[in-house]
Amino acid sequence: MGKNLFFFLFFSLLFNQFAYANKLDGEKLFKEYCWGCHHQTAQAFGPSFKSIANKRNRGEIISQIANPNGTYKTLGYTRNSMPSFDDLNSDELEALADYIYKFKDKK
Ligand code: HEC
């Protein structure tokens, strides 16, 4: 079981690297970088993407990903628990924001 999981993770990482070179996919980026702390629709260590999409604008989301230390106060948190993803380029940040907005409630 442990071994199978290892191979699964290894090959999905490998596969991610290939897919990644061709097309920016917000879901893949999410699984690679955010899944440990965020879930699409359920509260985890961090808030769900659904709740984020419902209350934040694009600028807030993108700044929070790139530089949470500069954003957490504006968003109403007393301290920051999220690592900054300042090595993501703007296309990747946009792809993540698009992915987060997929979970916004339809009005
Ligand atoms: C180590 C855990 C962790 C990782 C990894 C992480 N986050 Fe977070 N994130 C948090 C926590 C916790 C918060 C709530 C603010 C706080 O306590 O710092 C948060 C807050 C946020 C917010 C603002 C929430 C709001 O109130 O609007 C956004 C947007 C966000 N994260 C997006 C992402 C994205 C996108 C990724 C992947 C690139 C990511 N996070 C990776 C833990 C994490």
Characterization of the model:
The mean pLDDT is 90. The chain contains six helices and no strands. The chain has a single domain, classed as Cytochrome c-like domain (Cytochrome Bc1 Complex, Chain D, domain 2). The protein has 107 residues and is mostly helical. α2 packs across α6 and α4 crosses α6 (90-101). It binds heme C (HEC). The site of heme C has 22 residues, from α2 and α4.
Task: Quickly describe the structure.
This protein has 107 residues and is an all-alpha fold. The chain has six helices and no strands. The protein has helices at 2-22, 26-34, 49-55, 58-66, 68-71, 90-101.
Topology:
Elements: H1 2-22, H2 26-34, H3 49-55, H4 58-66, H5 68-71, H6 90-101
Helix pairs in contact: 2-6, 4-6
The structure holds heme C.
The site of heme C has 22 residues, from helix 2 and helix 4.
